[in-house]
Amino acid sequence: MTRHRSTAAQTERLRKYRPDIQGLRAVAIMMVVSMHCGILDIHGGVDVSFVLSGFLIGSQLLAEIDKTGKVSLSKFWARRFRRLAPGMAITITATAIVSWIYVSPFRFRDYMTDGLSASVSLINWRLAENGTDYFANDGSQSPYQHFWSLGIEEQFYLVAPIALVVMVWLSRLIFRNRVLVALFLMAVVGGSFYLGYTLTTKNQPMAYFSTTSRIWELAFGVLLALSAQLLSRMNTGVAGVLTWLGLGTLIVTGLLITKETPLPGYAVAGPLLGAGMVIAGGCAAPSFGAEKILDNPVFNFVGNVSYGWYLLHWPLLILFPSIIDREFGYSDRLRVAVLSFLLAIVMHYMVEKRFRENVKLVATPWRGVVTGGALTASTVAAMVVALHVIPLNLAVGSAQGSAAALGYQGTASVRAAVAKRAKPEITQNDLLKSPKDQTAHGCIDNIDVTKFVMRDDCVIGDREGKRTVVVFGDSHSWQWGNAFQELGEKLHAKMVTVAKGGCSPEDYEITREDLGREYTECTSWRQSALAYISGLKPDVIVVTNRVQPTATRSGAEKTFDALKATGARLVYMTDTPYPGFSVPDCLAENGKDPASCTTRADKVVDHPENRALERDVAEENGAKVIDTIPAFCSDGYCPAVIGGKVVYFDYSHMTGSYARSLAPYLQPTLKKALAG
Predict the structure, then answer these.
(1) What's the pTM?
(2) To 10 degrees, what angle do helices 269-282 and 45-68 make?
(3) What is the distance, to the nearest Å, from the Cα of residue 262 to the centroid of all Cα atoms in its chain?
(4) What are the domain boundaries of the chain?
(5) What is the pLDDT of residues 196-236, one digit of tens each?
(6) Are 651 and 661 a contacting pair, CB within 8 Å?
(7) Paired sense of beta strands 511-512 and 637-638, if any
(8) CATH 3.40.50.1110 is the classification of domain 411-675
């Protein structure tokens, strides 16, 4: 770790060009593309890339500090801009154009917000804050989602040179060597790994995407670079064995990780440590190490185009189903892998090499910085224009002129909507507002919350009312907030909303795919919510929720027994229809055939047997039942538009406007319950 003069043999071992690292770069991108395209379920490719980036950047910076005692920030950032900015600008802009042509107008706006975040290298934080499930397979992925790893790397590039110069200076001042640098890097590795490990069970998206929980992987690479001189003294026989063990560890642990494995957790350490072993052993340049297979023309070529392949394969994968407009199969995923590779080759030779090897940009660093800054600024401007200037590509005729939009006006309005499903009465303005038309009243706890805590926004209706109604459930309870606000004001009752996303009030075990485990946060939250409701002693408790496939009679009985014991009168509202597709998207894309957005009533009743089970248990405990289906469906159909209002703002939750119009539908039952 101390600075010393290396022998000729050691200098020869510490090569400027490492073919094994070029081979690892190829392995990493093939792992990523194989996993994303469903060719081979192998994980850890991005983690390998992180440690490679940390080692290469660390080696460059430490060598420059050794030579000059400082780092030329202009040269460093110019190299990064020449390497990264052109490909990013092309990919982000091209993706925006294809998205405008082929995807839903509403989804286009969300994509452009992601594109804007990607342009300024902050999309990883946006994904973390949004609770994005990276492995979701429900059409919710963004074509810019893969920029999260580039965002982390670019944030690292911004800070790393400054941090290393400061730490090297302090270490030399205090210890006259680099011990303090090593201790600093080890602290970053340990602290960041621990943060990621502990966050994985509490807030998996934050653990997966945040810079603070991932920076240890890059810092580990820098630590290897700091140790390169020491590692170069390793016995070549031992070094060779180490590289083979590392390559095996990388591949085997990558295969052992599945989509159900909590990530990042501890699992990502396997591929990363494997790559680190290959890098460490390669410092000694062993004759019979893993470099024997990593150093070959194919891997060298794949490594050269790996950046473009990474940039292009994911947008194609996400947008290709919309382009071909049919079911996306295994052969299509193979086509995406091949097509993106071919496009990456074109990008490498036509764009990347020209910027990287441009004589003027290389000779004058500030030109590279200005060029990169201009490309970034242009991309940001393009995203802003796409968000705020370019009109949405609504299907022709997707919105018809109509009278005043009133929503539900009795069952006759539902029958009329069914009859007019081919030409729904909806204005373009109402259609444009529908994806954001969510309830404005009531609270709901996020997935990671483990205990219900009363807040001001949980109390709606007549906040000074002497009678209290508790509305207990999940997001399908929260969606009724506007209706209960109206009811509370009319009936002079205080409405207390107790809701948690994806958490059934009935005592069932729930497994969430995005968590890869049992939803234990729901179990503990439900217990605290029931305890709070018992202490509140409300006059009426309304239970409504999305029916779970894991429903059991004993679980329903346990909850309703606890609610009945409070002495409150019980009301059970059956679950609302579940279209299973984005209704606003459907209306926007199918202007010539809006009837296709109307679902059959026998297709939207989710888990009918479990619905019946919950209803039976509720009635056995004396609950009054409100059947919600007549407010949404009639004559065998459930229209997407009723009374000029779009019924759903997504694939299952009703709009706030339509919920408000349903207050009269609920009022008779609630009024009787409050009257006792």
Answers:
(1) 0.78
(2) 40
(3) 14
(4) 25-322+329-388, 411-675
(5) 999 998 888 999 999 999 999 999 999 999 999 999 999 99
(6) no
(7) unpaired
(8) yes
